[in-house]
Amino acid sequence: MPWSVAPLRLGRSWVMAADAATLTARWNRLLRAEGAADLAELFRPSRSRTPYTAVAQLPGQPGSTGQFARERGRCPQPVKVAHGPYDQQWLIPDHRLIDAARPELWRVADAHQIHLLEPAREAPARTTAGARATADRVAPGRAADPGGSAPRAPGAGGGAPPVPAGLSFTALLPDGHSPAGRPGRVRPLYRRPGGREPNVTPGLLDHLGARLGHPVPAADLFAWTAAVAQRTPRGTVAVPLTTSPELWAAGVALGRRRVWLHTRGARCAPPPGSADGAGRPRLPGGQRPYVRAALAADRPPGPLAYDPDEGTLTVGNGRISPVARAAWEYHSGGVRVLESWFERRTAVGQPGTLEAIGPTGWPQEWTSDLLELITVLTLIAELQAPADRLAREVAAGPALTADELRAAGVLPVPTAAERPASVLDHHEEGPEGQFALL
Predict the structure, then answer these.
(1) pLDDT tens, residue by residue, 122-131
(2) DSSP strand pairing (428-429 vs 335-336)
């Protein structure tokens, strides 16, 4: 996947929130600013954005391109985005408010797209059970690191088991946030809208398909990556490419389930008639978390705690059970995912700032989001044992080598494949109402 995009750089945290109503309230407060000084204090100018900056429209969004200081309209409809590996937040899709919105990502974000998020550059080597190690970012222009003429996965030959790469996947537009260290890059599956032009090194799919004896769609290569990507001792991410049709089929099936879970059922849905069924991920009866004591909606909840003996998660006076220990212990970037999710919704902004504007209580949709997150983390943790077995089998099995890919003309990666594709199928409004040609 040679084309990659840097993470979003918001420049001001108030443009993102855990609920859409908060963003509308913040926008309205900003429009009521009394004079230039009050506007600047609330807006938080940066070198890239001030209330007087005129910028192009975000692709696919109807926001204005005039100076924000002259804005008198309604808040643009907030959009849901992926905040880091496992959270979902709302964002005001206004280019005037975001220092680096990465328009090239917005141009290709649609119902076909899936994004791969690289892990942080600096992260702990390993965490507890249910949590897996994260890795340094993929080397620019490289999704696979076959390792020259001996493309064995880390741990081959009976040593330590391969270390998972810590990749995550989302159907939403990702902000690239990482709870640890410098965030990695975002790699979309497709370079153009409509699921056109896979972001794959030219010639790789055809060569891999010839070795496996059947066509290889880009989505299958993406799923394979989700199943077997590993961290190398050099700190890069390796994607060993097997030539065994049996291992390939097993890896694609495992990876599709992982992507389905990460995207909350939006991509790689199980086939009709499968045990999982259609729709969003759900745990089997008896393991499914329920609200046993409702959270008070009219006031902020108390602390978050977990009772491993009873499998109960307490949120203030509210109780949720059963909650698997693997979900509670699931870490990403060195932090516990459930705690991080909760802290982002209960943090109190500094008085007088836009960050201080938020819900006065606990919205009902947050409880639904929490139940879904517990479900997803539980199911993802269950994939680790089969993923470890698959990694060992792949490490010991037949694989493509870098020398073979070079001989076939697949490597080195063409420079053009590392750049975004031109998108000429729609107009985008430029600064102060001009039109931009892309």
Answers:
(1) 444 433 333 3
(2) unpaired
Burial class (CB in 10 A: 0-12, 13-18, 19+), 241: buried
Query: pLDDT of 362-371, one tens digit each?
Result: 999 999 999 9
Distance, CA of 289 to CA of 40 (rounded, Å): 45
Which pair of structure tokens corresponds to residue 16? Answer: 């993102």
Q: How many domains does the chain have?
A: 1
Q: How far apart are CA 385 and CA 371, in angstroms?
A: 24
Q: What is the mean pLDDT of the chain?
A: 88
Structural domain contains residue 208: yes
91 lies in a domain?
A: no
Both tokens assigned to 285 = 């009866």
Structure tokens, 94: 């206004």
Q: How many CA atoms lie within 13 A of 165 on its CB side?
A: 33
Considering only CA atoms, which of 302, 313, 311, 318 is closest in space to residue 337? 313
Q: How far apart are CA 104 and CA 355, in angstroms?
A: 28
Token reading at 275: 């045990």
Dihedral sign computed on CA atoms, order 390, 394, 400, 403: positive
Q: Per the domain annotation, does 299 fall within a domain? A: no
Highest-scoring range by mean pLDDT, 127-131, 305-309, 331-335:
305-309
Least confident of 59-63, 167-171, 202-206, 224-228: 59-63
- CB within 8 A of 362, min separation 6: which ones? 295, 296, 297, 299, 300, 301
Give the distance, in angstroms, between the CA of residue 359 and the centroid of all CA atoms in the same chain.
25
The token pair at 340 is 């991080």
Query: What range defines the domain where residue 214 resides?
Result: 115-269+383-414
Burial-class residue 257 by CB neighbours within 10 Å (0-12, 13-18, 19+): buried
How large is the greatest C-alpha to C-alpha distance in the chain, in angstroms? Answer: 69
Measured distance CA(305)–CA(191) in Å, rounded: 43
Instruction: Kindly state whether residue 190 falls inside one of the protein's structural domains.
Output: yes
Containing 164, the helix (H) or strand (E) segment is: strand 163-164
CA angle at 76 for the pair 62 and 30, rounded to the nearest 5°: 130
Residue type (1 letter), 228: V
